[in-house]
Design a protein that fits this description.
With 223 residues, this protein is mainly α. The chain folds into 2 domains: 51 residues, no CATH class; 134 residues. The chain contains 11 helices and no strands. It starts with a helix and ends with a helix. This is TetR/AcrR family transcriptional regulator.
Length: 223
């Protein structure tokens, strides 16, 4: 009679975060994804229904992990007393620097899951939630910038800016994955130059930043 009580007590402890932690540990320790939800649940002494209370599949679980990375990034940024006074450019820089610090803390998992997916543009369904969250954040930033614009002619397109932000993040992800510099210093430079270039393009002063960014990319490619 004690066994059912023990299972019930353990089930009450099951959370979305715990399941994500179990999954990440599994792929890191085994070098592959779990074969089935049934086996994964059994290994952690929970029922399949416990898993499905939070995720519809492993694909949904992976999407949630990326979404959680982004949500935690926003929480860390917004705790900073200086954040509220940042302009849109500074907020985007802060977002990327903080986000890649988060990824670096989980680098082994990120490298495994992205390399396993192949092309981040074509096959990475797990990034769909991240894409949605990033585009929403970028849209918010451009709205802030537009509110500060004095003339209608200098207002920027929210849809173009948000899509450009996503393409930029994919570029930075690929760059970071291949970055062998100490403490990923080259990625920090890529973030700074790419963000400054993007905002300068919208502020109609692109030439100097674009040339500087192009030189940086050429140097990194040839080194």
């Amino acid at each position: 009679m004690a066994r059912p009580k023990k299972i019930k007590e353990q089930q009450e402890e099951v959370t979305q975060n715990r399941i994500m932690e179990w999954y990440m540990n599994y792929v890191l320790e085994n070098g592959r994804e779990p074969g089935t939800v049934y086996k994964f649940a059994k290994d952690h002494e929970i029922s399949e229904s416990d898993f499905y209370n939070f995720f519809g599949s492993f694909e949904g679980l992976k999407m949630a992990i990326w979404e959680r990375f982004f949500e935690h990034t926003l929480k860390v940024m917004q705790k900073s007393p200086e954040y509220a006074a940042f302009n849109p450019r500074e907020k985007m820089l802060s977002l990327y620097f903080t986000f890649f610090e988060m990824l670096t803390a989980n680098r082994s998992y990120v490298l495994f899951t992205l390399k396993h997916e192949g092309s981040m543009f074509k096959n990475a369904g797990q990034l769909r939630a991240l894409r949605r969250e990033l585009k929403a954040y970028a849209t918010q930033l451009i709205r802030e910038g537009n509110e500060e614009a004095r003339a209608r002619l200098v207002k920027r397109s929210e849809s173009i800016f948000s899509e450009a932000a996503w393409i930029q993040l994919v570029f930075l992800l690929k760059f970071w994955m291949n970055d062998n510099s100490p403490q990923f210093e080259s990625t920090d430079l890529a973030i700074e130059k790419s963000v400054n270039t993007a905002f300068d393009l919208y502020e109609n002063t692109p030439l100097e930043r674009a040339l500087d960014f192009g030189k940086f990319l050429w140097k990194e490619k040839m080194s």
